[in-house]
Backbone:
């Protein structure tokens, strides 16, 4: 089951799930990159401090997904897709993600999930 999260509700959803989640990107070599980061949600955007290699990956391929996984077997995950830009100020590099889609998504409960 999925429940769409409207962009004007994103900050509330991030507050509910917690500020730390996973930023998933693809590096210039095509390999997936997953980073555990601290997000801030402001007006339909997510911001997260990132390292040099992640910044390079975002510059090569700006399409990203973000995930806040549930720890409750009956809970929901928060999944967000967007496009990232990179900003650097005072030796801090920040991924700024313009969100284009967000959803609360329930883990599978069918027979395959129980095997």
Residues:
């Amino acid at each position: 089951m999925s429940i769409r999260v409207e962009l004007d509700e994103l900050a509330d959803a991030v507050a509910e799930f917690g500020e730390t989640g996973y930023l998933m990107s693809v590096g210039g070599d095509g390999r997936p990159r997953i980073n555990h980061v601290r997000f801030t949600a402001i007006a339909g955007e997510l911001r997260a401090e990132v390292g040099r290699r992640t910044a390079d990956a975002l510059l090569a391929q700006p399409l990203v997904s973000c995930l806040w996984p549930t720890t409750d077997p009956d809970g929901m995950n928060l999944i967000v897709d967007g496009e990232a830009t990179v900003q650097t100020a005072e030796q801090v590099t920040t991924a700024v993600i313009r969100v284009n889609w967000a959803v609360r998504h329930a883990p599978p409960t069918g027979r395959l999930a129980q095997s």
Remarks:
- The longest helix spans residues 52-60.
- The chain is about 15% helix and 50% strand.
- The mean pLDDT is 91.
- The first strand starts at residue 2 and ends at 4.
